[in-house]
Here is the input.
Amino acid sequence: MATTHLLYLHGFRSSPQSAKAQKVAARVHDRHPGVTWWCPQLPASPREASALLMHGIADWPLASMAVLGSSLGGFYATWMAEQTHCRAVLLNPAVNPALDLQKYVGEQTAWHNPDDHFFFRPEFVDELRVLECGPLARPQNYFAVIAKGDEVLDWHEMAARYAGARIRLLEGSDHALSDFDALMDEVFEFLDLSIDSPSS
Here is the structure.
């Protein structure tokens, strides 16, 4: 079934203004204007973020929705896909953010707006642990784009986490996937967006 509703989840300290989010949004609007698109600003609290997301998709048709997540957004996307059994694309997804983000407890600034400050609280680490999932229930629903050149996350951990899923392993690249333009066709082919579905 073609995808009629697409959710994009940004990474830690990122926002809907990220380059990848903007590029995906532009392509959806240009080529798939009937697809419902949602790219929310995620709260720093994982508990609040997960509640926001589940509330936001409450009326979506689960059989024809998909989620695309980058970095921490990839962790959230995996949690959502396990809840809904929807299709998911993961871009250098965080595998163990409860461990990785412990060192970021404290005041942080947003990448795309340095004037925007938020506090990453110690309890957020525990909230991340609550969202951890076991082995993928339906590996065929996942497509992971993983860069060996990722300077933030270990590509071995990402590849092991998504074993059995479709994986695009990039020999170089970086955490931000600066060469994302060259990957978009493959990402959209997997997402299989509807061409003329009415928006809702």
